[in-house]
Amino acid sequence: MSRIANLPIKLPNGVSVEQAADEIKVKGPKGELQLTCPETVIVTVEEGVVRVQPSEHAKNSAMAGTIRALLGNHVHGVSEGFERALELIGVGYRAQMQGSRLNLTLGYSHPIDFEIPEGVTVETPSPTAVVVKGTDRQKVGQVAANIRAFRPPEPYKGKGVKYKDERIVRKEAKKK
User: Is it true that domain 9-79 has CATH number 3.40.980.10?
Assistant: First the structure.
């Protein structure tokens, strides 16, 4: 049985949850998110608390835990937002915002122009730092992973695009 689904979600000030049929809308100061809820899960909203329960079958417990985690992420996203920081390590590696595009120079023979999807904002506080922000946790993580995928960190010198809190396991160079 899912233990996550048993935890209630407390709604912070300024956040509201509306339920219509199988759609759940979470509104807050940073935006609005929607979630489609399956019939196997029962969601109740009362007095600033959201509760998630599975319907009668035990198999539905895992889905109730998933929906509860997604709802918790939506509530956190519309109230505080999510952020993922990336670092560019390497000689000449840099990033620059140009309108709605992120221009990356990562040691290739050509610059990389990455189109920023809707609902996500990208900032470059310095030429070697990129910060991805947004309300939807999945979108923020996916955009950060897409940027990292252009040049993942390599294990010998550590060059590449890495998450700020990522630790790169370094390999020893070949010996003569």
Answer: no
